[in-house]
Design a protein that fits this description.
Shape: globular
Helix content: 10-25%
Largest sheet: 7 strands, antiparallel
Number of helices: 4
Order of helices and strands: EHHEEEEEEHH
Strand order of the largest sheet: 1-7-6-5-4-3-2
Number of strands: 7
Radius of gyration: 16 Å
């Protein structure tokens, strides 16, 4: 399993806002272009988005389905990559002080993708996650006005309700 994490200099609420915006999907996920909602309201359970993924000269028509959601803290997706099969992608948000620790766990779920899963494929997934988490962090940090603002001396910050799990 490819598990990667990144500390994002934004609140869990700000990170969730980006994850919950279907128009932002192509800005932080590596590969897809032109996301089109297919079913439901993103990121509600069962919601589906459709997009095209380019792998060099090859273009795949894909879709991603929300399989599990805990608003503000957990988003689990099943990405369908045509003839390659599907992958499970779990994204967990944890409050980390005033910031957000984002943990991504991805592995093949169905189809031939699982049969060829090896350390080489795992390395490629890790590289993709590194780029994906960097893009996500940039989007969140640009959107969160408090991301760079230091707290006033003696100020007490409270955890946001529903923002992550301990």
């Amino acid at each position: 399993m490819a598990v990667r994490h990144r500390l994002v200099q934004a609140s869990p609420r700000s990170v969730w806002a980006v994850l919950a915006d279907p128009d932002s999907y192509v800005k932080w996920v590596v590969g897809p272009s032109e996301v089109t909602p297919e079913r439901g309201r993103w990121p509600e359970l069962g919601a589906t988005i459709h997009y095209e993924l380019s792998l060099g000269p090859v273009r795949l028509t894909n879709q991603t389905v929300v399989r599990h959601v805990e608003e503000g803290s957990v988003l689990e997706l099943e990405a369908k990559a045509g003839p390659l099969g599907t992958a499970r992608i779990a994204i967990e948000l944890r409050p980390w002080g005033e910031h957000c620790l984002v943990i991504v766990d991805e592995h093949p779920l169905r189809g031939p993708g699982g049969a060829v899963h090896n350390t080489g494929v795992e390395l490629l997934i890790h590289l993709r996650h590194r780029a994906m988490l960097a893009r996500l962090a940039k989007l969140c940090e640009e959107r969160d006005p408090a991301a760079e603002a230091p707290a006033a001396p003696g100020a007490v910050r409270r955890a946001e309700p529903g923002a992550g799990r301990a």
